Amino acid sequence: MSNVRSHRGCAAVAAGAVLWLFSAQAALAAPGLKVTGMTFVGSRGDLSELVVRAEKALFYPDTSRADLFDVQASVSDKERGESFHMTCDEAELNVETNNFRATGHVEGQTGDGQRYQAPWVGYEHAKSMLYTDAPVVVRDKQGLFRGDGFRYFIDERRFELLGNVSVEQNP
């Protein structure tokens, strides 16, 4: 079964996925759709495209929110290609704004090759920014960096580490 749900310029797609509504009794406790094999695509005009894939998801149409499990996410644009990609155990996605917060074994890489690991990472689509205020480890060809968080400004491809930064340079 294939299902496409459009919502104000964005689409949640479950290609080849099984969709089902909870039973009437369960729907009273937790209304929403349970989705297996979900792919969500959102865009910011011609500037960037967000693609989020999840093995499982709970979608709540009334709040435009989805709870995602076993997640892969990426943002790219036509001119520069992939800006970042990441994987995580869980994420909460707002399908109205295309913002999300990834948690649990968050690992990713920027389009310029910086690899990052953090307990949680957020993404603000309108600001084109990836961020965390949690301890982070960043690796690139220069070495290993640790800090109390980061901001990655996607349009500028600029990575900024926050607070208590330490550096281990490669020889």
Strand element count = 15
The level 1 CATH classification is Mainly Beta
Overall tally of domains: 1
Shape: globular
Mean pLDDT: 81
Which residues form runs of ≥5 with pLDDT under 50?
Answer: 1-29
So, the CATH homologous superfamily? Lipopolysaccharide (LPS) transport protein A like domain
Number of helices: 1
Largest sheet: 15 strands, antiparallel
For the record, the CATH architecture stands as Sandwich
SS-derived structural category: mainly beta
How does this model look, in words?
With 171 residues, the protein is mostly beta strands. It has a single domain (3-169), classed as lipopolysaccharide transport protein A fold, CATH 2.60.450.10. 4% of the residues lie in helices and 67% in strands. It contains one helix and 15 strands. The protein has one helix at 24-29; strands at 3-7, 10-14, 19-21, 33-44, 48-60, 65-77, 81-94, 100-110, 115-124, 129-132, 136-140, 143-147, 149-153, 158-162, 166-169. It has a 15-stranded antiparallel β-sheet that branches. Strand 11 and strand 12 form a beta hairpin. The protein is globular and about 55 Å long. The protein starts with a strand and ends with a strand. Mean pLDDT is 81; it is low at 1-29.
